[in-house]
Amino acid sequence: MFKMKVQNFFEDYSKLPRGIFILFFARIVHSIGNFVFPFLAIFLTKTLLFSEQKAGFFVMMATAAKIPGLLMGGKFSDILGRKKVFVSFSLLSALFILSCLFVEQKEMIPWLLALSAVFNGAIHPSMNAMVADMTNAENRKAAFSLLYLGMNIGFAVGPLIAGFLYNKYLQLIFIGDVATTVISVLLVFFFIEESIPSKEKIQSSIHSNHTSEKPEEGNLYRVLLSRPYLMIFSLVFTLYSFIYVQNEFTLPIQMMEIFGERGPQYFGSVMTVNGIVVIFMTVFIISLTRKIEPILNVSFAGILYAFGFGMIYFSQNMILFSISTILWTLGEIMASTYSDVYIMNHTPMSHRGRFSAIIHILIGSGYIFGPYLSGIYIGYYQMRNIWLIVFALSIISAFLMYIVYLWEVRSDQQQIKEYT
Fold first, then answer.
1. How far is CA 419 from each of CA 211, 212, 409, 412, rounded to the nearest angstrom?
2. Domain residue extents for the chain
3. What is the pLDDT of residues 155-181, one digit of tens each?
4. Could you report the per-residue pLDDT of 259-271, keeping only the tens digit for each?
5. Are 44 and 55 contacting, i.e. CB atoms less than 8 angstroms apart?
6. 305, 343, 353, 393: which has the fewest C-beta neighbours closer than 10 Å?
7. Angle, to 10 degrees, between the axis of helix 140-165 and the axis of helix 318-345?
C-alpha cells in the first residue's frame, strides 16, 4: 500500500508543468549558495563582535526589512508580472550582498544586508504566484513539495560548504551567494514564460462556479477579511514562525557556547542533517499525508516542533542535536508544504501576489520578533531555558490549528445543509 502511494506521488510529479521543474532547479542552485543569512547570527557575534542582544536586533531588522519587499513584490507581481519581479528583485538583492565586501566600517554591513533582504522579500510572493498560476488544486501539493525539496537539496550542501569556508575564506561566502543567485535568475529568465493570468481569463473566471480561488474585485483588505479561516490560520502560523526561527538564531549561538570554535562547523553539519532529512523524507511524508487536509498536517507539524525543539534543552552532544534536528525537520516538511497549499487554495487568482505578500508579512512577524525577543531573554536567563518556552508554544499552536480545522468543517457542513 505504502509503495503504491509513493509511486502515485512520483507520477504526480511527472505530470507537473515544465515551468515547475525549471523553478525546482533554480531553487536548488540558489539554495546551494544561500550562505550569508543562515550564518548571520554567528557572523554578527563572532566576526563583527556584536553582543547577543545587538545581534538579535540586527537579525530582526534584516527580517523586518522583507516587509516592504513583500508589499512591492505582491503588488508588482499582480500588475507587472511574476517573472519580471522575480528577476529584477533577485538581482538587486544579490547586488547589496556583494557590496558588503567593499565597505570598511563593520556597522554598515548589517544595513546593507537589510537592503538585500528588502528585495529578497519580493521574490517570495512572485514565486508563489507563479506556482499557483501554473497549477490547480489537484496538483498544487506536488508542486509545492517539489520546490520545497529543491530548496533543501541545495540547503543540504550549502551550509556544510559555508561551515568549512567560514573561518578561513569568509569572502567566498558572499561571492558564492551572489553567483548562485545570478544563475538561478538566468534559469527563470530564459526558460519560464510570464504566467500572470490575462484580463480575459480573470473576467471569464469571475462568472464561473464559486471556489476559493475565484477572482474577486474590490479592495484588497475587504477581500482578505472575507476569508476568516485564512486570517485565523495566518495568525496561528505566526507562532510557528516564532518557533522555527530559533534554529536560525538561538541554536547556532548555543552551539557556539557548547562547542566553541567548532560551533560554526557543527552548526553547518546540523543544517546538513536538516537538508538530508528533507531530501530523503519529503516524498514519503507527503505520500503518507497527501489525502489528509492541509491544515491537519500543519497541526501535526506543531507536535513535531514541540518534541524536536524541546529536546534541545537536554542536548549537549552532536547525537542529541542530530536527533532533535530530524524531529523538527519532519515538522518543517509538513508545515512548509501544507501551509503554502492551504494559503493558495484559499486565495483568489486575481490577488495571488498581494495575498501572498500580506499573509507572509503577518506570518513573518514571528521571524521578525523571534530573534530580538530571544536575544533579550538570553541576556537575562540561561539560554537553554528558551526551549521550554518553545515546547509550550508548539503544543498551543498545534491545538489552535486543530480548532480552526473543526471550525471550518462545521461551517462547510452548515452550508451544505442550507443548499440541500
1. 15, 17, 16, 11
2. 12-193+219-412
3. 777 777 877 777 778 888 889 889 999
4. 887 787 888 788 8
5. yes
6. 393
7. 140
Give the chain's length. 420
Q: How many CB atoms lie under 10 A from the CB of residue 345? A: 17
Q: How does DSSP assign 140-183, residue by residue?
A: HHHHHHHHHHHHHHHHHHHHHHHHHHTTT-HHHHHHHHHHHHHH
Cell of 161: 560548504
- Which H or E run includes 420? none
For residue 309, give the nearest of 395, 403, 401, 400 by alpha carbon: 395
Chain centroid, CA 261 distance in Å: 29
**pLDDT tens digits for 96-131?**
999 988 987 888 888 998 899 999 888 888 888 898
**What average pLDDT does range 251-256 have in this prediction?**
86
Q: CA 407, CA 257: separation in Å to the nearest integer?
A: 44
DSSP, res 247: G
Distance from the first to the final alpha carbon of the chain: 36
Using the structure block, give the residue that is written with the C-alpha cell 499552536.
397
Provide the grid cell at 267: 552548526
Cell of 346: 484559499
CA torsion angle 197 199 205 207 (round to 10): 170
**Block residue for cell numbers 526551549:** 387
Write down the pTM of the prediction: 0.73
Q: What is the pLDDT of residues 191-248, one digit of tens each?
A: 998 888 766 666 655 555 445 656 666 666 677 777 788 888 989 999 999 999 898 8
Three cell numbers at 323? 536527533
Q: How many CB atoms lie within 10 A of CB 172?
A: 15
